[in-house]
Amino acid sequence: MIIMESWFFVFGVSLILTLSVQGTHAADQPNIVFIIADDLGWNDVGFHGSNQIPTPNIDALAYNGIILNSHYVQSYSTPTRAALLSGIYPMKLGMQGPSFLAAEKKAMPPHKLLPEYFKEMGYETHLVGKWHLGYSRWNETPTFRGFDHHFGFYNSFCSYYDYLSTWRYNDHDYTGFELRKDGQPVFEETGKYATDLFTDHTVNVITEHDTTKSLFLMLSHLGVHAANKGKPLEAPQETINNFKHVVDANRRTYAAMVAKLDESLGSIVEALDQKSMLSNSIIVFISDNGAPTIGSFKNWGSNFPLRGLKDTLFEGGVRSVAFIWSPLLVQTSRVSTDLMHITDWFPTLYTAAGGDIDALDPELDGIDVWSSLVYDLPSPRNDILINIDEKTRNAGLRFYNWKLIVGTSQNGTYNDYYGHIVMENIEDVPYNTSAIYDSIAGRVIRKTNYSPLTEVEYQSLRYQATVKCTAVKKNECDPATGAVCLYDIPSDPCEENDLAKFFPSVVRRMKRALVDYRKGLIPQIEGEIDIESDDPKLFKYTWSPWLECADSSCQIA
Ligand SMILES: *[C@@H]1O[C@H](CO)[C@@H](O)[C@H](O)[C@H]1NC(C)=O
Ligand SMILES: *[C@@H]1O[C@H](CO)[C@@H](O)[C@H](O)[C@H]1NC(C)=O
């Protein structure tokens, strides 16, 4: 009986999907605008309960879409982007290690990436902003990996006005220019604030888009990653001046950087609306990992009250800010705690675009959750391999409500709580729901009448989306000591109460699952830092591909 019912259920769902996909042609396929913030903290958006940095556009979209509150990413940039574009767990690609460095001879393995699938479906594909998946040869760069166009940078960061990135190797600083358009350096754009520049470019792509084709656009912001040492945080002074209530000068600049990200979303929604593309668009917003409140590339972001930072497998490192907004979603204005992993976007967006997931690599780790998102159906995702790093021996796994952490990154330096540090001595401003209602995104959504919410309803969603630490017993576990830590995340989202000794059979089962996953691990790809050959001064002071391609067709003209 149960079996019959579930067959009926599956048949019913696939019937709905088949009907909705039938008869689609290029122009009916949804436009996809996927926006990635860099190193944005869990607690740095209004919809997660913070009163410090108003994010009215982000909040308007989140409340009118679906807040994805159990959305897991990798703990730093390169692996997250590898997982997103391949749909595969990074440890199966040799990409589970640290992010790529400038002049490092490493690249994303030659898997067919998400934008290549979208091109095959007739989409125009754009990447604006950060790549961070290798550039030693031209054929490793975005326009050779499925993007028709790229406007942005190849390494992990640069400065926000002059687009220079400085790396210290062998006691020497190497500085190179980073901004490129389809491979060519674009010096003439220098001086414009990066978040505005990438937003304006995105708005132009939308405004000039040939709407007989659908658009697949990834906007991978530099904001709010730290820039060069000496001047890690940068924002326009007039924006910084809006945050006089933030006493700490660094946190104040950070707040302005987040406000610029928020404006970006407003401008993009407005451009999609003016081009009459919005009613057939899907907008996703995520952070690539948690904020590094302290440590290298610290940006004064906050993952409060979550534990850990970027570079850890605690929730503060891997549970990211995320929402999806689209008029194509039927059940919206809700907080989803269904597990979702960064790899899931691959089959999910492919399905949303009318692609046949049977055509995808069966080795894909991503799970198609499109119908769960659209109709609020039970999610097919029950577990997530957070990572296995065979060098640090740090691994993490989610299994239903459970989370197991083995070993540690960074010798355990970042396993504590940091989010509150940057929140001290700061006057909170009251949460202003009218500002959300009146934001550009709020107005556009309202005007186009996608059953928008009232201000009162915002508050209840916000309450649901705010993490509350409810662990009664504190039972600390520091994996740096060699302990294995087990947490019940729904009741203990702040990872304060280790349950390993109370649930030994769960620990055994999850360790066994990790051992099984370990069999599919590919050792981390190796590649030295080849600064002799990639010294920016050899390339007109730019960070440039420096190795010959095996195939001459991959040279940029
Ligand atoms: C961790 O500790 C070892 C041994 O003390 C040291 O060699 C290594 O550099 C440390 N790593 C980090 C990331 O601190
Ligand atoms: C809230 O935002 C609105 C703009 O929508 C503004 O007019 C109002 O002054 C703000 N209220 C407070 C208390 O800041």
From TrEMBL:
Gene Ontology molecular-function annotations: metal ion binding; sulfuric ester hydrolase activity
Q: InterPro entries per the record?
A: Alkaline_phosphatase_core_sf, ARSB, Sulfatase_CS, Sulfatase_N
UniProt modification remark? The conversion to 3-oxoalanine (also known as C-formylglycine, FGly), of a serine or cysteine residue in prokaryotes and of a cysteine residue in eukaryotes, is critical for catalytic activity.
Question: Do you know which Pfam families this protein is assigned to?
Answer: Sulfatase
Q: Which part of the chain is the Sulfatase N-terminal domain?
A: 30-354
Keywords, A to Z, come to:
Calcium, Glycoprotein, Hydrolase, Metal-binding, Signal
Sites bearing 3-oxoalanine (Ser), chain numbering: S77
Renumbered to this chain, the signal peptide range is 1-26
> What's the cofactor?
Ca(2+)
Family membership? Belongs to the sulfatase family.
Q: What is this protein called?
A: Arylsulfatase B-like
